[in-house]
Amino acid sequence: ILIHLSGYTHGGRCEILPSRPAPIAVNYLGFPGTLGMDSVDYIIGDPIVLGASVIGQVREAPVLLPDCYQPNRRLGHPPAIANPAAERAAHGLPETGVVLACFCTVQKISEPVFARWMAVLRRVPDAVLWLLDHPRTDPGPRFREAAARHGVAPERIVIAPWLSSDAHQARLALADIALDTAPYGAHTTGSDMLWSGVPMVALLGESFAARVSASLMRAVGLSELVATDLDQYEAMIVALAQDRARLALLRRGLIEAREASPLFDAARLTRHLETAYELMWQTHCAGEAPRGFSVVPPQGSGRGSEWPNWAR
């Protein structure tokens, strides 16, 4: 079984696939969508990223893992922040205000979503927006100019410098709320925030790439923070920013439950993947064409992911 982890990304080498280097070819993880090739048999996802409304977009036979398709194996917990006020000041953040953070790359930040962020800042006067710099594109000045056009003081846009992976992960807990993007949503940036105990407001879209954040939230038991349109998205962010008690409760819940969460249970995901590969191979050996299927977790394998109303 060949598992292609790159898809149409830099160096993906998809041109190898038509030569059929293995009896079975699987599209998994690196490219959030179909490869559209007859030589790729399966695509691995979950019931959210390959939900009923989008499953027709893929050419491959869909394989649905029961929780989130995204693997997350974290070595050790993020370091505790001894003095949050001082740490915030060191990063140019207000000591007491609400920090809304999005560390997705700049190309994911669409004008409609940015406009909603600006609406939130106008409605929550003590909030700031924390965005990620990029060493080649220097987006800070453009973000601040855009904020001014939306009637928001440019200094309320705080730009986080590009840091090493460890230093970056260590600062994430300074945020209060993580923000999703659309139409291409948060993927690894979202799971990074959740691992650090930062709740995220996700926005459910109509493609694989637009539904990963919702899958992440389902796997940590926070489907209540998944919006299905921009109006609901803005309202959820404002409500959460204005409710410090709920924010603290959500953060505490994420931190206490992360060891047991399906999102961060690498062994659980491994078992599900092994089951999927076994079923693919059995189908091949039986001389049958690839067909879609769902992996059912074995009885007694632990708490699974909830099934939210917006996914029905």
Q: What secondary-structure arrangement, pairings included, does this model have?
A:
Blueprint: E1 2-4, E2 25-27, E3 42-45, E4 61-64, H1 84-90, E5 98-102, H2 111-123, E6 127-132, H3 140-149, E7 157-160, H4 165-171, E8 177-179, H5 188-195, E9 200-203, H6 212-219, E10 226-227, H7 230-241, H8 244-257, H9 266-285, E11 293-294
Parallel strand pairs: 1-2, 2-3, 3-4, 4-11, 5-6, 5-8, 6-7, 8-9, 9-10
Helix pairs in contact: 2-7
Question: What descriptors fit this protein?
Answer:
312 residues; alpha/beta; Rossmann fold; six-stranded parallel β-sheet; five-stranded parallel β-sheet; 32% helix; globular
3D structure, described in words:
A six-stranded parallel sheet has the order 7-6-5-8-9-10, with helices on both faces. Strands 1-2-3-4-11 form a five-stranded parallel sheet, with no helix packed on it. The protein is built from nine helices and eleven strands. It is α/β, with parallel strands linked by helices and 312 residues long. Strand 9, helix 6 and strand 10 form a beta-alpha-beta unit. The chain has two domains: 116 residues, Rossmann fold, CATH 3.40.50.11380; 179 residues, Glycogen Phosphorylase B (Rossmann fold).
Q: Could you state the CATH homologous superfamily of the largest domain?
A: Glycogen Phosphorylase B
Helix content, binned percent: 25-40%
CATH class call of the largest domain:
Alpha Beta
Main pleated sheet: 6 strands, parallel
Number of strands: 11
**How many domains, in number, for the residues?**
2
CATH architecture of the largest domain: 3-Layer(aba) Sandwich
Order of helices and strands: EEEEHEHEHEHEHEHEHHHE
